[in-house]
């Protein structure tokens, strides 16, 4: 069994969706096709939800009406004169009636989650009909019937395994279509795997079914060795280990959902990133194999907040870090980077939602300083920290870039630097020149 996931741009126009049908048909054997919503749809649903939250119902309805018109045009192009166009427009009508109904309701978490789910519900419905219409027999299974979260809003692999196997036992077709992103929470309500979560859907399915391969089809020819939007002459990486890919996905490479490598790694299911617009290109193969070569790639993560806690009470004291970490734990705010000296601790977070309260609590331990708009630059490779000369190359090339924090040796695969966002571009370019 292979898992093939197609992102929003890959199904974002009728032409693209037809190409996806070709790519799926070219594979042999049983395969599960995971689809995102058409590109832009989830953003639009978020906008509708935000208007509802702000009690701006007419504005929410206007956005929904405009979206519906776009879907009608999409369906006209996808199905042409075929009778399927009518049935699919009726399906879109049902979805937009539900959206209208949700807008009318008192806003709450379930209204929000139901709204956000509609994109994937539509894309999979249209694609399934298009496949069957063009003689490629396929069936659909609904993500809400198997993808299950636990109390911590993390996927429950056990429950998901049982449920998906029960559904698959009833399926005859070789091609099975399902929604990315959508999940049910521990209380049975509608939920999701957070933005970009369709990749996660694919690797969770891959892991629970112990698939031979998960393919992530996107609009780029793999993970690049630096950010192609900022640096010239980047190139796709043919192979990455699970660890390297995880670090890159977490620290800014936009190609993959930051958590999606975890389930694949758990069951050693290889993940292949492929380009829908160039299906024959090799892409990036992520597997348990650690290839040679010191530095593989550089990635950057923006909107980082750096917090420094300075206190003479820290000298020779024990238990100080524990108290600091407890503050972050109580606000469920993950820490990304951390460095310490004898009288100060610096750390970074990427979710500033509870920042004010965190600062207030930290202030009882010492003087707190906060820097906003920081960027983590992450240099990833095989035992980066143990390769001679890598450190000196990095620091020489960043001679005139102010470094706010440096994290070296935390893992075999990563050196992280914190710079202010204004220096990001310069730093990425200089590192690229010196390391590649
Ligand atoms: N449609 C969802 C999003 O835009 C999930 C995904 O595309 O991966 O975040
Ligand atoms: Mg994506």
The name CATH uses for the topology of the largest domain is: Carbamate kinase
Q: H/E order of the elements?
A: EHEHHHHEHEEEHEEHHEEEHEEHEHEEH
With strands numbered from the N-terminus, the spatial order across the biggest sheet is: 3-4-2-1-7-9-10-8
Number of contiguous helices: 13
Distance between the termini: 37 Å
CATH superfamily of the largest domain: Acetylglutamate kinase-like
Morphology call: globular
Explained architecture:
It is built from 13 helices and 16 strands. It has 436 residues and is α/β, with parallel strands linked by helices. The chain folds into 2 domains: 2-219, Acetylglutamate kinase-like (Carbamate kinase, 3-Layer(aba) Sandwich), CATH 3.40.1160.10; 297-435, VC0802-like (2-Layer Sandwich). The chain has an 8-stranded mixed β-sheet with strand order 3-4-2-1-7-9-10-8, sandwiched between helices. The chain has a 6-stranded antiparallel β-sheet with strand order 12-13-11-14-16-15. A two-stranded antiparallel ribbon has the order 5-6. β12 (338-340) and β13 (344-349) form a beta hairpin. Magnesium ion binds at residues 7, 196, 199.
Structure keywords:
436 residues; alpha/beta; Carbamate kinase; VC0802-like; 2 domains; eight-stranded mixed β-sheet; six-stranded antiparallel β-sheet; 13 helices; 16 strands; binds aspartic acid; binds magnesium ion
What secondary-structure arrangement, pairings included, does this model have?
Elements: E1 2-6, H1 14-26, E2 31-35, H2 41-53, H3 57-79, H4 84-104, H5 109-133, E3 138-140, H6 157-168, E4 175-179, E5 182-184, E6 190-192, H7 198-208, E7 213-218, E8 239-241, H8 242-250, H9 261-266, E9 271-275, E10 284-287, E11 295-310, H10 320-330, E12 338-340, E13 344-349, H11 355-362, E14 367-381, H12 390-397, E15 405-411, E16 414-420, H13 424-435
Parallel strand pairs: 1-2, 1-7, 2-4, 3-4, 7-9, 8-10
Antiparallel strand pairs: 5-6, 9-10, 11-13, 11-14, 12-13, 14-16, 15-16
Bound molecules: aspartic acid and magnesium ion.
């Amino acid at each position: 069994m292979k898992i093939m996931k197609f992102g929003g741009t890959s199904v974002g126009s009728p032409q693209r969706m037809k190409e996806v049908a070709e790519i799926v048909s070219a594979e042999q054997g049983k395969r599960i096709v995971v689809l995102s919503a058409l590109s832009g749809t989830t953003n639009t649903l978020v906008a509708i939800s935000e208007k509802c939250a702000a009690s701006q119902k007419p504005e929410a309805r206007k956005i929904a009406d405009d979206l519906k018109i776009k879907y009608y045009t999409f369906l006209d192009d996808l199905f042409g004169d075929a009778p399927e166009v009518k049935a699919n427009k009726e399906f879109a009508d049902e979805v937009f009636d539900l959206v209208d109904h949700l807008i009318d309701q008192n806003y709450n978490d379930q209204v929000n989650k139901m709204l956000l789910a509609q994109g994937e519900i539509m894309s999979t419905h249209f694609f399934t009909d298009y496949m069957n219409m063009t003689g490629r027999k396929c069936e659909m299974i609904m993500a809400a019937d198997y993808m299950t979260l636990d109390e911590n809003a993390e996927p429950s692999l056990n429950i998901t395994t049982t449920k998906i196997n029960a559904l698959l036992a009833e399926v005859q077709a070789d091609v099975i279509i399902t929604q990315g992103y959508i999940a049910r929470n521990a209380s049975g309500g509608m939920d999701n795997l957070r933005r970009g979560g369709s990749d996660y859907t694919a690797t969770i399915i891959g892991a629970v079914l112990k698939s031979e391969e998960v393919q992530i089809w996107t609009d780029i020819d793999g993970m690049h060795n630096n950010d192609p939007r900022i640096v010239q002459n980047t190139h796709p990486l043919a192979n990455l280990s699970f660890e390297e890919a995880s670090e890159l996905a977490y620290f800014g490479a936009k190609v993959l959902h930051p958590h999606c490598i975890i389930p694949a790694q758990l069951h050693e299911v290889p993940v292949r990133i492929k380009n829908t617009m160039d299906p024959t290109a090799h892409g990036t193969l992520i597997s348990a194999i650690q290839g040679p070569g010191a530095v593989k790639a550089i990635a950057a993560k923006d909107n980082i907040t750096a917090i420094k806690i300075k206190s003479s009470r820290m000298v020779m004291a024990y238990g100080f870090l524990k108290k600091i970490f407890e503050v972050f734990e109580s606000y469920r705010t993950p820490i990304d980077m951390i460095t310490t000296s004898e009288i100060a601790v610096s750390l970074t977070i990427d979710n500033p939602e509870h920042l004010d309260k965190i600062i207030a609590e930290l202030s009882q331990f010492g003087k707190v300083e906060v820097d906003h708009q920081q960027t983590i630059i992450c240099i990833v490779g095989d035992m980066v920290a143990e390769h001679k000369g890598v450190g000196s190359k990095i620091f020489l090339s960043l001679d005139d870039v102010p470094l706010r924090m440096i994290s070296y040796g935390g893992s075999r695969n990563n050196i992280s630097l914190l710079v202010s966002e204004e220096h990001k571009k310069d730093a990425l370019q200089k590192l690229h020149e010196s390391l590649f």
